[in-house]
Design goal:
- This protein is α+β, with helices and mostly antiparallel strands.
- It contains six helices and 17 strands.
- It has helices spanning about 5-25, 70-80, 120-130, 145-155, 170-180, 230-235; strands at about 35-45, 50, 55-60, 65, 85-90, 95-100, 105-115, 120, 135, 170, 190-195, 200-205, 205-210, 225, 250-255, 260-265, 270-275.
- The strands form three sheets. Strands 10, 11, 12, 13, 14, 15, 16 and 17 form an eight-stranded mixed sheet that branches.
- Helix 1 (about 5-25) packs across helix 2 (about 70-80) and helix 3 (about 120-130) packs parallel to helix 4 (about 145-155).
- The longest helix is centred in the N-terminal third of the chain and has 20 residues, at about 5-25.
């Protein structure tokens, strides 16, 4: 059953679809993407998952539902936007992912054709309405930088899930409280946005850590980790992690508890600097 909030968001998406159609009259903007298959969307099987009439399962690249409790409204909005419409898939760095059941699924950006014949970018529509959050990670970054400003606008306007204070960026104190209740590492934890000032940078053989409290204090245990294997990507992006001490940042990533509250930074685009200095 579609919730009242899901109905309201679906109605907003219909209005959004009409507005975006005017911007898409010349066809989908595939800059930075490789054109893929065209088929009709049979079903929205999850908040960011579609089944095409060809049988192909498609995961929407670079986004996810803002929170577990927002999955149903996100799926309702996705269904209203896509079901029964012709869809064009477009690929970034990765095209296919293998599922545990042996099925192979597409990982794609999806464009759907509106009644007017114009193409609408599904990821943008969901993000603009606060129904999805941007998740840049290795293999999924072709359009993340383009999507982040749309997310910021939806967050500032309190649209969709952003009306819920639990989805808004957390302080370090709230992040610490939530993570302390988790019993696993960040590889299976909820996806969160947190904001705070980095006290100092730590380094171990396994990676680098942004620590949010002075050494020897309880808050020092609140950290964000960059795996050593990922550091080359940060250097390539021009981010000097060692120079982030004292920076006020907004981070996004899965959280867990590993010797202390832990957020795993998956990509340089998962870090935004909030103070006046540019990223080092």
């Amino acid at each position: 059953m579609i919730s009242h909030s899901g109905i309201a968001w679906s109605a907003r998406l219909i209005v959004c679809l009409a507005a975006l159609s005017a911007l898409s009259a010349c066809g989908p903007d595939l800059v930075g993407l490789a054109e893929g298959e065209t088929a009709v969307v049979a079903d929205a099987e999850g908040p960011t998952r579609l089944r095409l009439d060809s049988g192909l399962l498609v995961f929407l690249a670079e986004i996810q539902a803002p929170d577990a409790e927002a999955e149903r409204p996100t799926q309702d909005g996705l269904a209203a936007l896509t079901e029964g419409r012709t869809a064009l898939l477009a690929y970034g760095e990765r095209r296919r992912i293998a599922l545990r059941n042996g099925e192979e699924a597409a990982l794609a950006h999806v464009f759907v054709k509106s009644e007017s014949g114009a193409w609408v970018w599904v990821q943008r529509a969901l993000v603009e309405e606060g129904l999805a959050i941007v998740r840049p990670r290795p293999g999924e970054t072709a359009r993340a930088a383009t999507l982040l400003p749309f997310e910021a606008q939806a967050r500032a306007a309190g649209l969709g899930a952003w009306a819920d204070a639990r989805v808004q960026p957390r302080s370090i104190a709230l992040f610490t409280l939530e993570a302390a209740q988790l019993d696993s590492g960040c590889n299976r934890g909820p996806y969160r946005l947190i904001e705070g000032t980095v006290d100092h940078i730590g380094a171990t053989p396994t990676g680098m850590y942004l620590n949010f409290g002075p050494p020897g204090t309880e808050q020092e245990d609140a950290t964000a980790r960059i795996l050593g294997a990922d550091l080359d990507a940060w250097r390539a992006a021009g981010v000097d992690v060692s120079a982030l001490a004292g920076a006020t940042v907004r981070l996004r990533g899965p959280v867990g508890y590993g010797g202390g509250p832990l957020l795993c930074l998956e990509h340089p685009l998962a870090l935004e600097r909030l103070d006046t200095a540019p990223l080092p």
